Amino acid sequence: MRVTLVHPAGFNFVPGQPDFSVLANRMPPIGIMQLASWLDKHGHQTALHDCLGPYAPKTIAENAEIVLATDPEMVGFSATTSGFMDAIEIATYIRQRRPEIRIVFGNVHVSSLGAPVLEEFPEIDYLVIGEGEGALLNLADGKPLKDIGNLIYRDEQGRIVVNPRRDRILDLDELPFPAYEKLAGFPHAYHLPLFAYEKRYGATMITSRGCPYTCSFCDRTVFERLYKTNSAQYTYDHMKYLRDNFGVYHINMYDDLFTAKKQRVMDLCDLLIENPLGVQWNCAIRTGHTSDEMLAKLKQAGTLMVSMGIESADPAMMERHKAGVTLDAVRDTVRQIHAAGLRAKGLFIFGMPGETPETVKTTSDFILSLELDEMNMTKFSPLHGAPIWEECASNVSGDFIEDWRLMNCLNFVFLPSGFSSREEMDALYNWHVRRFYDSKGYQRRFAKRLWAHRWSLWHVLKHLPETIAAARYFSANKAELEKAKREFKLHPRQPIGMQPRLSADLQVDNIVSMSPIKISRREALKAVVLPDEESMSCGAPPVLQPAV
């Protein structure tokens, strides 16, 4: 079968202007690349289209025509919440032009919402819930729909059918390397975040799936609880493949938690030390789950920077949203990282329930005290399926604007009760960002390594005319842009109030993580009533209610 996989661009708020965020960071859509190589391995013909790619046109129609030009029999969309409506518009265009093409949607958003998505959007033929390789291959092979796990579809009578979940892929080494070669402009026209690398070209890798932890703000509906990894040898071979075939000399390990299995990390480092590739790389760790030995090995094996999710420096916020992480552990981990000669990057979230101006200022003070090499603070967006979703959606602890296009961690869609307005939040956010990057400590550290980032400097200079033009546009049209933001309308086809349809396992996790008192998973399971076979066949989700 001919299958074209699409990465939708998502929403760019400034009408008629390009998305300038890609000038600072344009990473390959690794998910659809992995699916493409899997289908190719099993004899199908695939094509990729990245709507955020360097050669992608601006309009829905133009992107849809590129997809149609590949002559697909099936088109698959990997859509996040913010990119979902963009994907729907492309799918609608394709359905109108070529109604015989089968359209399938997957990724986190539809994995969280399930069957009701098909009720709202008739242009979608199939939903793939969770891990996508098996279901997508079964569809391409023409397997009977009723026998395809992880699939939601309409039967001949038009009734929505929810098939059972399939077993997860246990050996990730079975998967071929992602189809980097199918991505137009890779690697030279893609690039990692500015000043996060010293060598070019850059690429991303994902070497694990799932996470053993349950943070309040995180949605794990695709991979659920099970945590699996590629082997050290597979990861080494993948890195070598990128270097030898594409000239990639810096890799971002995009795993949620790269170092969860210590022995795998140590084995990979040994391989890289014994047979160096000359490749630098970054990865993510969990605060408090490191050792001097591991960090020293990472440095010796070519690691440049490690990231850690800290989220907040307010103890009450930490206890509520980031269980198991203490501020003392954060300080100790940063000291360990710097002692090993590595760079430390802190990841923070602004605007979760319980946030106040005081907690933000506390976090800002703490960030400056850590002497981090890099910092990223995102604007909190509730996610369907995250433990915190119900609290946010019910407006119990703040005001939530459920506009999927704005739920991209770049807008304050949630206003905590501790703030008077989103304008107040934006002002405080901008204050912190300026404070960090204007601090003498950061500027001193940055100046010492500036020449090492000459490729980033060259990238900035290369795109300086575009950056200046954008700055002038924003400056000249500030009032109009602010007015447009205030008057921004919900997409006419986006539903409001859709509830997550979660597996029993995820429901239990969410109950445990959000319980005001300590509760075991066994106790939480009593509150989960599993659906019977009849209810599953008509697409009804599991129901949460008190056990009787």
Account of the 3D structure:
The protein is an alpha/beta fold and 548 residues long. It folds into two domains: 2-162, Rossmann fold, CATH 3.40.50.280; 192-462, TIM Barrel (Alpha-Beta Barrel), CATH 3.20.20. It is built from 22 helices and 19 strands. The strands form five sheets. It has a seven-stranded mixed sheet with strand order 2-1-3-4-5-6-7, with helices on both faces. It has a six-stranded parallel sheet with strand order 8-11-12-13-14-15. A two-stranded antiparallel sheet has the order 9-10. Helix 3 crosses helix 4.
Summarize the structure.
The chain is α/β, with parallel strands linked by helices and 548 residues long. The protein has two domains: 2-162, 3-Layer(aba) Sandwich (Rossmann fold), CATH 3.40.50; 192-462, TIM Barrel (Alpha-Beta Barrel).
Provide the spatial order of strands within the biggest beta sheet: 2-1-3-4-5-6-7
Q: Give the termini separation.
A: 50 Å
The global form is globular
CATH topology of the largest domain: TIM Barrel
Overall structural class, as computed from helix and strand content, comes to alpha/beta
How many whole angstroms does the radius of gyration measure? 23 Å
> Which range does the strand content fall in?
15-25%
Instruction: Report the average pLDDT across residues.
Output: 90
CATH superfamily of the largest domain: Aldolase class I
CATH class category of the largest domain: Alpha Beta
Q: What summary fits the major beta sheet? A: 7 strands, mixed
Number of strands: 19
| Number of helices, where a helix is a run of at least 4 consecutive DSSP H or I residues | 22
The residue fraction in helices comes out at: 25-40%
Number of domains: 2
- CATH architectural label of the largest domain: Alpha-Beta Barrel
Low-confidence stretches: 531-548
